[in-house]
Design brief:
- The protein is mainly beta.
- The chain has one domain.
- It contains one helix and twelve strands.
- A hairpin with a 2-residue loop joins strand 1 and strand 2.
- The radius of gyration is 15 Å and the shape is globular.
- The N and C termini lie far apart (32 Å).
Length: 170
């Protein structure tokens, strides 16, 4: 099972079930040689980023980030979901409430890290296919109505330099 998870681009670190690692790609004409990445979580799709939890590094072509433990309660909505977008940034972002600084250099526009409370109610829509705890997801944009997410391998998560989050799922 660990081999299958590694092929998908996300694994528990060193067999530690309390860590979730995402190995994804970086694209964009001006991708930095080296940068920091983090996960910024939203309680709903129309709210600004509300919480920073999860860190990593990026090269010109790939990123690796680690999330240790479950997201804090402030990052989880009333349905028991936390939707996190990987962002590239300049400067430092401390864990906790996100204040909008420093400058974001890029984001995973079409994908996210999803955390689902195994005991939570969920939305009862797109999230029913997700298991408890962490997964990676791709944004699905219908012709009309709200966007949704579908389960995808973490290796499919792409951070776009200059990109901004655009999936309107809530």
């Amino acid at each position: 099972m660990l081999v299958l998870a590694a092929l998908a681009g996300c694994t528990p670190a060193g067999g530690n079930a309390n860590e979730f690692i995402v190995n994804g790609s970086v694209s964009g004409a001006t991708a930095a040689q080296s940068a920091r990445v983090a996960v910024l979580w939203r309680v709903n799709a129309t709210a600004p980023y509300q919480y920073k939890f999860g860190d990593g590094t990026a090269s010109q072509y790939q990123f690796v980030l680690t999330i240790e433990g479950d997201p804090p309660a402030a990052a989880i909505n009333a349905s028991g979901l936390a939707i996190g977008e990987v962002v590239m940034f300049s400067g430092e972002i401390a864990d906790g409430v996100y204040t909008g600084t420093p400058t974001l250099l890029g984001a995973t526009m079409d994908s996210a890290v999803i955390w689902k409370d195994p005991l939570g109610s969920g939305l009862g829509t797109w999230d029913v296919s997700f298991g408890g705890r962490y997964s990676c997801a791709k944004c699905v944009r219908p012709v009309t109505g709200l966007d949704s997410y579908q389960l995808t391998g973490c290796a499919q998560v792409n951070l776009v330099v200059g990109g901004v989050a655009t999936c309107h799922w809530y």
